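thread from #wetlab-drylab

HS: before we spend reagent money on co-crystallization trials with PRP, can we at least see a predicted complex? here's what I'd submit
DV: go for it
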Amino acid sequence: MKDKTSVMIPQEKLEARIQEVADQINKDYAGKTVHLIGILKGSVMFLAELAKRLTVPVTMDFMSVSSYGDAMESSGIVRISKDTDEGIENKDVIIVEDIVDSGRTLSYLLELLQKRKPASLKLCTLLDKPSRRVVDIKADYTCFEVEDKFVIGFGLDYLQHYRNLSYIGCVEEIGDERE
Ligand code: PRP
């Protein structure tokens, strides 16, 4: 049986909201260069859609981190499997994430990157699940707050599947086969 999934945020709604957030960033960073750091892999789609809509100068880099713990919950002990290629000193950095859940990963990352002395450091997330927060992290830019459902699509996965969906969906019932 295939997983039973449903649409939570359709593509048009996602794109309209990403445009609003991009407009805000364009205003806030007028006269500056924005250095985006995408956290792999979930942020890839969002970062691409956001970056296309930025009119201020943009540079980008990527980090890959994994958190020890089971598949559903991060532990806060974060391992960097790919660091940024370039340094961030004196840059106006925006971390781009697909979701802030417990906040553990971001709490660790913000602290780590802050030590590298960027000119500024902000967090932009596509989704926020405030009900799951364990560490007090607040994103500077949030596209959507979502309830505690199993979200997939637009970069977010279930067992590495569904990242390519052009909308945010949720898994209603787990099957033994992925689409
Ligand atoms: C997700 C997400 C964040 C983290 C958030 O990544 O991209 O990095 O979990 O969870 P937290 O707030 O509870 O720390 P994931 O480990 O699923 O990796 P992926 O982006 O490669 O799917």
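DV: The chain has a mean pLDDT of 95.
HS: ok that's useful, forwarding to the group
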